[in-house]
Amino acid sequence: ALVTIFPKRVKVKRGKTIYIVLGFEILSLLSSYFQYNLLQEVSNGGIMTPEAATANDTRERIVGILYLIAYIASAITFIQWFRRAYSNLHLRVDNLSHPEGWAAGSWFVPIINLYRPFHIMKELQIDTCYVLAQKGVSKDETWRATVGPFKSLCQAAGVKCEGNITKILTSLVE
């Protein structure tokens, strides 16, 4: 059963950003494949015209710029989500280590950005488990919700996922 632990707010669809980045990643791989074929043709004794070289460079540049824009948009989306999650935790837990604003701001302050986002994420995970426990959600349910989709994706991709990532995730939950 789904347990509502935070008040409802207007939902913003930020999840589409990952699909946009994935699309540009595939486009980038395809463009790199075309460049590889062009270079293979030249290494096998073919001749590359200046027009073909210019077209290749232009295509790679455009794909690179679009990918960079999508990557920056995904970073902004992640930081918005991170701040929102910490803000929601502030609604349920008193005496958190940092004010809400630091969830977003800590990514941009030199030196602090090396440890504070990790500390906030760790606090977010531990205190969210505490709030879930108060609502009667067990660690097993939390584990299945967190790691289950990850393991399913690994199995669908044919990747063995019983290594370090699973051990790290297990240690975080316990």
SSE layout and pairing:
Blueprint: H1 16-43, H2 50-92, H3 102-105, H4 116-134, H5 139-157, H6 164-173
| Overall average pLDDT | 79
Number of helices: 6
Structural class: mainly alpha
The proportion of residues forming helix, as a percent range, comes to: over 70%
**Could you give the distance between the termini?**
22 Å
- The helix-strand sequence is HHHHHH
Determine the strand fraction and express it as a percent band: under 5%
Number of DSSP-assigned strands: 0
Extract low-pLDDT stretches: none
Please compute the radius of gyration using only Cα atoms.
22 Å
Shape: elongated
- Multimeric organization: single chain
What would you note in describing this structure?
The protein has helices at 16-43, 50-92, 102-105, 116-134, 139-157, 164-173. The longest helix has 43 residues, at 50-92. The chain is an all-alpha fold. The two termini are 22 Å apart.
What is the gist of this entry?
Helices cover 71% and strands 0% of the residues. With 174 residues, the chain is mainly α.
Features:
single chain, mainly alpha, 6 helices, 174 residues
